[in-house]
Amino acid sequence: MNNELHKLLYYYNEEGYEGYDLNEVQLLEKKDSDRIEKLKLLLHHEDRYIAYHAMLILLAWSIPEGFELLDRFITEKWEEKESFEPHRLHGEDNVYDVITNALYIATFNGKTEQELYPFIKDFLHRYGDCLFESNLKDFLLKKDCGPLLKEMEQAMQKALENKRYYQASQLFPVLVHYDKKTWRKYLDTFRSLISQDNRITYNIQEAEKTADNLLKDDEPLS
Fold this sequence. Notes:
mainly alpha
């Protein structure tokens, strides 16, 4: 990658701080129009990894062409042809979780969560088969995703079926956030799986705290 391309994708300079970091570029408040046009051109780059990074920036900035490439990315199954975000520990591709973070930033640049529902639904459909670290969970908790409750529950159940126990447990506090009845419905299931992955405990505790805040009576949770 030449210096000009590297600067286009990764260079940021805002509020006295500067460096090379794609995440910081996504968060830039001032979007240079010339840079946007050059990033649009990169969406057609022969190197899909470069096109993918340009897409992440344009998604975060709510530029339509970024969403057009995301549609292609999904339809053409780019993630099956090469790895974009290999996880440092698990070896799986965390690409859709990273894309979710770009969509989350887009909500601060003019996109509503409702406009992004089709993408979030698609990612939930993949949840039981693909690696998702935490960005999808954060999006579901921080944005109004109540209309996707059915898809969330189905995603969690599929992750359980595929023995992605910790990943399934990440959606437990999300479900409780939107429907407190799911606390009792799934509590025993996740308690029984702590021996498989102790990290499940943290999601149980988070779900418990959420349920406790939602309950109006004095009935004990467990």
